[in-house]
Specification:
The protein is mainly alpha-helical and 83 residues long. The protein is built from four helices and no strands.
């Protein structure tokens, strides 16, 4: 689901023949706004990727601590241990 949302945001900011959203003084502002791609969807996708990596790191840390404490990932075994 997350990948499809990221792809949607990337396609939302796509512009055929678009230029990077970095303006120099050689190009008039009106022409620049017609040709430049929208940087907001790109920023949202990058933010989403960073958040996903943070969540993954947290899940791995929880899994490591769970295994250190109970020596198993079997939920029925963990319920039997009670503590």
């Amino acid at each position: 689901m997350q990948y499809s949302v990221n792809l949607f945001f990337i396609l939302l900011g796509y512009r055929k023949g678009g230029i990077p959203p970095i303006r120099d003084n050689k190009m008039p502002l009106v022409e620049f706004t017609k040709k430049a791609v929208d940087p907001v969807p790109q920023a949202l996708v990058l933010t989403s990727i960073v958040i996903d990596l943070g969540v993954l790191a947290l899940m791995i840390a929880i899994a490591i601590r769970l295994y250190q404490r109970y020596k198993t990932f079997d939920i029925t075994e963990i319920r039997k241990l009670k503590g």
